[in-house]
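Quick question: who can interpret this fold?

. . .
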Amino acid sequence: MKNRFWQLLLLILTLSSCSDEAALKKAIVQKAYKIPHLLNDSTIRLFYEWEYIPRGAELWYHTLNGEQDFLCVYFRDDDTTGLRVVQPRNFLRMFPFNGDTTKLDYLFFRKSLDNKLRVTAEDTARVQHVLFNHVETQKVFLSSNPFKKLSELSALKDSLGVIGITQNHDLGNFIEFYLSPQAILTYLPDSLRIDPKFKAIWLSDFAKGKSINKNWNLRLLPKPVDIR
């Protein structure tokens, strides 16, 4: 009797697991079909310039000519929005501000609800410097505001419901949108370029997926992968 009970319980759990897996797969496929309609040429071009990787906070890599230009670690809590910048000299070319930018290794921004900034920096000797404290954002940045740009990117990412967006210029000009650790939706432009050394491998991978239309391919992977 006990053996029969455990066998029945195992069967129920297996059926429940299969049902949950089927529902998750269906939801992912439905999301994959929606995403192409949420993007246009302009928004797709953003992801040739910006890559998103989740690591607790939002990691946004800016690329220039196919190379990593700088990294923004972007996070939000109840009363502040934070930004940590790696490779700040490159960042300051895009988002210049009033302040001493010599010998900077890292930049840290904290923006309060009243739109005031505290800006600190760490120099090459790992000494901390306070550059601004409780200063209006528009008085810090000379032209472009990184908080506005990152807020827009974050909102777009959220509207797509993705957990990662990557593009490797060296491999080709396709963009990968991670719907889950086991589901990747790939944008394939009309002028698709793939490094000839890896072209056969990538085309084989795409062939195992499902074509959403001529520009989009959905791959459901057998095992989860870590977003690079």
